[in-house]
């Protein structure tokens, strides 16, 4: 099992263990139940964006190391792509929070 899968599994188990007492509380008030879907969405969005930007930067640095003469073009394309990923991330976070 990969490190990322283990980390996700352990994080999910920890969240369920910590949330169990709150979900077991008696009462009909809407604040008793915890809405975890919003927070899972935020977490997945941030993890996906950071993974994507990391892969983008790693590939760009590898390309610059292999062909230093086109480093300026690669860097410009990398910055534009990272900005688009960040814009989509903020949009997804906005949707998760609303």
Automatic annotation (TrEMBL):
Gene3D superfamilies assigned: F1F0 ATP synthase subunit C (1.20.20.10)
Membrane topology type: Multi-pass membrane protein
Pfam families: ATP-synt_C
Signal sequence coordinates: 1-24
UniProt cross-references to PROSITE patterns, sorted A to Z: ATPASE_C
Positions bearing the site annotation: Reversibly protonated during proton transport: 86
UniProt-annotated location(s): Cell membrane; Membrane
Family that this chain belongs to: Belongs to the ATPase C chain family.
Protein name: ATP synthase subunit c
Native species: Blastopirellula retiformator
